[in-house]
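Pipeline run #58 for the internal structure catalog. This entry was flagged by the ingest filter as a single-chain record with no existing model, so it goes straight to prediction. Upstream metadata was stripped on purpose; only the residue string is passed forward. Reviewer on rotation: M.T. Logging verbosity set to normal.
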Amino acid sequence: MKKLMTLAAFLAGALGANAEMWTLRECIDYALEHNITINKNRVAEEAGESNLAQYKSQLWPSLTFSTMQNVTYRPLQDDITTRTVDGQVTISSNKVTGNSNYNLAMNWTVWNGGVNYLNVRNQRITNKIAEQATETSEKTIQEQITQFYVQILFSKEAEAVNERLAETARRQWERGQEMMNQGQMSRADVVQLEAQKAAEPTSCSWKPRRLLPNTTSSPPRRRRPTTAVSSSDCFSWT
């Protein structure tokens, strides 16, 4: 019941005082985009794909590379090097020295009882369950919104029919009064017509907005489509 009332909060009139018109497709699209349960299921799907990629990476070797560079400058160093080549004497002083260190390591779990493969299989199954949950939620929302939408259209049509019936009963009563004044109808018949007029419903007996909680949120403004229900009868998703 709580879930149904949450859906009803969407279908209830939630464009405030603006009587804008939404088609069934617009109502469904808005619900699929903003429904909390569906969004949570989609997040679970994305997290599952990330976990699956992580488990798959554990099946392959991992490489680690590191390097270290060291440079030393000694401006006051008196270390002088003398070299003689083909009779030429070269004197140099090396005040800058440097060294490098490179390290490459590989780590690979060859066998751990098949745990890594089982993790991959289990995560794939979990991802399928999450996809099915999202699909089920979307279909349930679409079905419920369609039911409410049809009920709204039916109630609006029933309201129009009842108004026409009430108008007909009122005209018959007025005609009866005229005929009674002319002596063509008895007062008892006029009283009966008056009772029929009072018994005729003047509005639809079921209104969605009477059954649904009030809401203060307002979805974005939309253009008026050609075939739709009033926004006061449609729903705001919270």
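catalog note: Residues 62-107 form one domain.
catalog note: Strands lie at 21-22, 62-73, 80-85, 88-93, 96-107, 229-230.
status: ready for reviewer M.T.
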